[in-house]
Amino acid sequence: MRIKSQKDFFAGLLYLLVGGGFAIGAFNYTIGDSARMGPGYFPLLVGGLLAILGAIIMFRALVVETIDGDPIGKWAWKPLIFIILANFLFGILLGGVPSLGIPALGVMVGIIVLTLVAAYAGPEFKLKEVIVLAIILAAGSYVVFIWGLNLQMQVWPSFISD
């Protein structure tokens, strides 16, 4: 059988592998039932649905004809690097690295840096728009996580909040 859409086939394969991995990993926890869900119930359900969706997408990629075979393009290195770097920096800024002498700078600084670095992944970067977005995301995160959910985490750098 010939692959008629490479993009769909490999996207479906990725969904199938990730969903299957989550579903298999869920069996390490108590599953429970619909009335009394255990910690493995939701990952099993979502992983199973994702795996089924992946199988359907893979099947369609083998059956439905496309014009040019929908080939996979080149790797987008710039977005890949900047998105991973943004998340890495967020984790470091949120918790700090005491062994390297990097203090925890809190959620607000972490979200602002995350937004600024991740914005470089796109085709264009407009500093004013990104700063406005970063402030809105930081404020929204504060409202949701600190006020709404009452999570106990460092919001500001220690030299500001002390």
UniProtKB/TrEMBL annotation:
Transmembrane segments: 9-29, 41-63, 75-94, 100-121, 130-149
Entry keywords, A to Z: Membrane, Transmembrane, Transmembrane helix
UniProt superkingdom: Bacteria
InterPro entries reported for this sequence: DUF1468 (IPR009936)
Pfam families: TctB
Domain DUF1468: from-to ranges: 10-153
Protein name (Swiss-Prot/TrEMBL): Tripartite tricarboxylate transporter TctB family protein
Species per Swiss-Prot/TrEMBL record: Ottowia pentelensis
